[in-house]
From TrEMBL:
It is an enzyme of class 4 (lyase). Its main location: cytoplasm. NCBIfam families: eno. It comes from Rhodococcus baikonurensis. This is Enolase. Its cofactor is Mg(2+). HAMAP family: Enolase (MF_00318). The keyword Cell wall biogenesis/degradation does not apply. It is found in: Cytoplasm; Secreted; Cell surface.
Length: 418
């Protein structure tokens, strides 16, 4: 059981306030969690509680969420014996009492939930990932999806698509997957320099050059993959996109590189991109409110590539259940802070598994050094993770954790399951 639980306001990777949680267990163990924070958020995400006190951090302070951990949550949890993480999370969900965790704040609750997950692993003397493996699931080392070129809300350039990711699907191991992308990232930097394009980094560590056309970026990526000595495609190194289209979907149209186009135009644009480039996965290709478009996109491309819901699914078990029934997408992005507890995140993953939907574990654009998602990805067996570029400490920390898990557990399989 917990003897103390304490949160403090720290900075995330963008320099915005977030929380860390440190808890002491009776047995003497100390567990920690750092809370991530998104920029291109879905409207139905659990509520990230901010102070809205303009005198501090432009209103983004998290003193209220910190006080909720140190007051009511700590009071409810310390000194009690819990058998499972689900029991801990249930107490916090009940204490909050709202459907969207807006009273205590999802940022407060998720920090304690992640720390509690580590507490149970420590209590059972298990590595974190092993303590999270659901019954009947084969844990796997996930294919890392490295976001090497940033646009949208994550960079100040003219690029509307948010994320261009490199996915070493055909790598023989975790370490070789990371090596491949680090080499490709380096080749990409050289290509940008040769073209006199800037090599400064966006929020997730990808380059953020002044390019506007997705096609131009994809050409650069294929070139970098080849130049680094790898084979573009699903047997080698593939590409994944997260346009985060909710951010440029306004008044019923999509605004890409200064042009306003319809939902149907977007879908045929994606068809062309998939024909021309080794793209294996598209996340948030359309806006979260464009339900008919989503169904059409899934019907058009769902047999050829992975269609991932993020802003529209928000890791919410009930919403994902409805989306599956409606034929929206064939995969879900999974972010612990979108729903606010580890237990509900595991439920969302189970719903995907049971329905034959794929799942990809994800960081947020605002991160800390916490590597929880690396363990979660291995435990879930989903075979996919995205954690930004092979650069910036808060991104690399997750990939490094995966390399270390792989090294300590040589029999864990790498990659997507068949
Ligand atoms: P966010 O972006 O963390 O800023 O929401 C990540 C994503 O859209 O997947
Ligand atoms: Zn996304």
């Amino acid at each position: 059981s917990f003897s103390t639980i304490r949160a403090v306001e720290i900075l995330d990777s963008r320099g915005n306030p977030t929380l860390s949680v440190t808890a002491h267990l009776r047995e003497g163990t100390v567990v920690y969690a750092g809370v991530p924070s998104g920029a291109s958020t879905g409207t139905r995400e659990a509520v990230e509680l901010r102070d809205h006190d303009a005198a501090r951090f432009g209103g983004r302070g998290v003193f209220r969420a910190v006080a909720h951990v140190n007051g009511p949550i700590a009071d409810a949890l310390t000194g009690r014996v819990f058998d499972t993480l689900a029991d801990v999370d249930a107490v916090m969900i009940q204490l909050d009492g709202t459907a969207d965790k807006s009273r205590l704040g999802a940022n407060a609750i998720v920090g304690v939930s992640i720390a509690a997950a580590r507490a149970f692993a420590a209590a059972h003397a298990l590595p974190l990932w092993r303590s999270l493996v659901p019954d009947g699931v084969q844990p796997r080392l996930p294919v890392p999806h490295f976001n090497v070129l940033n646009g949208g809300r994550h960079a100040p350039n003219a690029l509307d698509f948010q994320e261009f990711m490199i996915a070493p699907l055909g790598a023989p191991s975790m370490a070789e997957a990371v090596r491949a992308v680090a080499e490709i990232y380096s080749a990409l930097r050289s290509s940008l320099e040769q073209r006199n394009l800037a090599t400064g980094l966006g929020d997730e560590g990808g380059f953020a050059p002044e390019v506007a056309w997705p096609e131009e970026v994809l050409t650069l990526l294929v070139h970098a993959i080849t130049k680094a000595g790898y084979t573009p495609g699903v047997d080698g190194v593939a590409i994944a996109l997260d346009p985060a289209a909710s951010e440029f979907h306004t008044h019923g149209a999509y605004e890409v590189a200064g042009q306003r186009i319809t939902s149907a135009d977007m879908i045929s644009r994606y068809e062309d991109l998939v024909d021309e480039f080794p793209i294996w996965s598209i996340e948030d290709g359309l806006g979260e409110g464009d339900l008919d478009g989503w169904k059409q996109l899934t019907a058009t491309l769902g047999d050829r590539i992975q269609i991932v819901g993020d802003d529209n699914f928000v890791t919410n078990p009930a919403i994902i259940t409805d989306a599956i029934a409606a034929g929206v997408g064939n995969a879900a992005l999974i972010k612990v802070n979108q729903i606010g507890t580890v237990t509900e995140t595991l439920q969302a993953l189970k719903i995907c598994r049971d329905a034959g939907y794929a799942a990809m574990i994800s960081h947020r654009s605002g991160e800390t050094d916490d590597t929880f998602i690396a363990d979660l990805a291995v435990a879930s067996g989903c075979g996919q993770i995205k954690s930004g570029a092979p650069a910036r400490g808060e991104r690399v920390a997750k990939y490094n954790r995966l390399i270390e898990i792989a090294d300590a557990n040589v029999r864990l399989p790498y990659g997507l399951s068949a």
